[in-house]
């Protein structure tokens, strides 16, 4: 569509979007008469704006109050007209400062990086941490309530994880022990991913040998690890207050709260990571383009990060209003993803 526009229409569109991203306010024709390359009347600019509105690229929130870009308009601007800025030295220094924090574990390190990313961008940061892939030393199940159980995972490197899940009805301490014994016989020297594959084979092979309750216990545990309502990756969100502070209107506050309710329930996190893997580098999701944030009226700038084997293992991103300063945020997210990938790779070598 950009290629079919006249130079005047393209400039009006670009200046409206840039003005909106800078201030959050609708941009009027009189404002544009002072900045256009060619001298044109306000009436001419209003006619161009009406044409752009007809195309679905601009919208007028109030009568005679100027125009703002629609989601389609923002998408077209980001894809075709956005000018990516150079990473500012001060932003680089703040991200780099987290590298020397000597965090004891990956989770603490990523939490510090998330806090720095939130501080630099004044948005909410999102970090999807890699799953733990050290070999498993021991697995145990603990009954917490009729509908809740705890899976205790001890890894060979000393890492410990506790995961609460919902077991199949009717589990007993005996069936839990049998399930744990079954898993521990398979688990030695295997990572969670490898154990999951081995479990699928073994459950099929020995289905008749297992007590019905023990078998359902194993399958319940498998379902937890296969992302049924939970994921192996850990989601870290920092800077929630940044979004709430910038949202003056009650309706906007409600949309932001809805976003964080979604995040806290970890809805669609698997899809989120899969979508970051669809392309290399930074991706921008505007409003309802990302199912995870469809109710929030927010944008997400996200980049996957890789380990030493160039395999995508997680992602970092920034959540903010759709009027984000995309040109500044994109290089910050890109650089942070590179930093995280290098830190993860260096720790793996150690």
UniProtKB/TrEMBL annotation:
GO molecular function: DNA binding
Domain Heat-inducible transcription repressor HrcA C-terminal per the UniProt entry, residue ranges: 109-330
UniProt keyword terms in alphabetical order: Repressor, Stress response, Transcription, Transcription regulation
Entry's Gene Ontology BP terms: negative regulation of DNA-templated transcription
Family membership noted in the UniProt record: Belongs to the HrcA family.
PANTHER family according to UniProt: HEAT-INDUCIBLE TRANSCRIPTION REPRESSOR HRCA (PTHR34824)
Protein name, entry field: Heat-inducible transcription repressor HrcA
Gene (name only): hrcA
């Amino acid at each position: 569509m950009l290629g079919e526009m006249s130079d005047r229409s393209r400039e009006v569109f670009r200046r409206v979007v840039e003005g909106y991203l800078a201030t959050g306010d609708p941009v009027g024709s009189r404002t544009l008469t002072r900045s256009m390359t060619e001298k044109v009347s306000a009436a001419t600019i209003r006619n161009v704006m009406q044409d752009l509105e007809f195309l679905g690229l601009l919208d007028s929130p109030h009568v005679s109050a100027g125009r703002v870009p629609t989601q389609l308009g923002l998408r077209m601007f980001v894809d075709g007209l956005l000018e990516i800025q150079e990473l500012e030295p001060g932003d680089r220094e703040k991200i780099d400062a987290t590298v020397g924090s000597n965090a004891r574990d990956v989770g603490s390190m990523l939490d510090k990086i998330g806090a720095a990313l939130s501080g630099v961008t004044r948005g909410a940061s999102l970090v999807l941490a890699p799953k733990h892939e050290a070999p498993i030393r021991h697995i145990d199940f603990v009954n917490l309530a009729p509908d809740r159980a705890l899976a205790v995972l001890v890894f060979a490197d000393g890492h410990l994880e506790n995961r609460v899940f919902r077991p199949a009805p009717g589990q007993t301490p005996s069936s839990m022990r049998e399930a744990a014994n079954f898993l521990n016989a398979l688990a030695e020297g295997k990572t969670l991913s490898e154990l999951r594959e081995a479990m699928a084979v073994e459950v099929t092979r020995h289905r008749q040998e297992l007590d019905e309750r023990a078998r359902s216990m194993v399958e319940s545990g498998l379902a937890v690890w296969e992302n049924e309502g939970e994921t192996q990756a850990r989601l870290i969100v920092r800077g929630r207050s940044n979004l709430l502070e910038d949202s003056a209107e009650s309706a906007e506050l409600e949309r932001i709260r809805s976003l964080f309710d979604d995040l806290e329930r970890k809805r669609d996190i698997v899809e989120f990571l899969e979508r970051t893997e669809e392309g290399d580098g930074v991706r921008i999701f505007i409003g309802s383009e990302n199912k995870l944030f469809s109710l929030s009226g927010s944008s997400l700038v996200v980049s996957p990060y890789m380990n030493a084997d160039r395999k995508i293992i997680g992602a970092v991103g920034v959540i903010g209003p759709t009027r984000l300063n995309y040109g500044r945020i994109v290089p910050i997210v890109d650089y942070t993803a590179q930093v995280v990938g290098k830190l993860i790779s260096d720790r793996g070598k150690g």
